[in-house]
Amino acid sequence: MPSPFHEVRFPLALSYGSRGGPERRTEIVTLGSGDEERNSLWRHSRRTYNAGPALRRAEDVAVLIAFFEERRGPLYGFRWRDPFDHASAPPGREPAPTDQALGTGDGTTRVFPLAKTYGGAFAPYARPITKPVAGSVTVAVGGVALAPAAFTVDATTGLVTLAAAPGLGAVVTAGFTFDVPVRFATDRIEIDHQALRAGVVADIPILEIRR
């Protein structure tokens, strides 16, 4: 049974100044000879973020508390906008339907999961994208953009369903913007009341949800 999730984004105004990025888990064994053996324990990276510390207005603190309480702390997941990695295209360029390869047609398959590929020269990594922004996805087959009526997108799972199965060997691509599915990584939010109308929230740890 999937964990409970609210399809709402963490307020962008409260995420300014946040820090974080991808984390991987690697096992490294040093042999008696001094040689190393390295093994990746995780198939996919996991993003961690922290929305603090920052001096916030009383109004912002109230919004943060309301958001935290409605999520019941870490119980309900929510969307997070990564300011440096939230689109299929490189920074400064608008997403295009040929940005990211989703798969190759076989004449039968109509459903393709969204993904974003990092690198390409040695060991490219395909990251599953499960929370696209509704209305942002464009799709192409064989380099030709499809009309919006030729496909549907589930914004809660990242699955693209084509009206017609692509022919054998036809490359399916997509462009999009997306959020990261996350949850609070703490049961407690501590606010330091520094002034009458402002406070410092020192730590708001946020963790990517992987299914």
TrEMBL record:
InterPro entries: DUF2460
UniProt xrefs under Pfam families: DUF2460 (PF09343)
Keywords attached to this entry: Hydrolase
UniProt keyword annotation of Iron present: no
Region described as Disordered: 86-105
A single GO molecular function term of this UniProt record: hydrolase activity
Annotated ranges, domain DUF2460: 6-210
Highest rank taxon of the organism: Bacteria
Name the record gives this protein: Glycoside hydrolase family 24
Protein source organism: Methylobacterium aquaticum
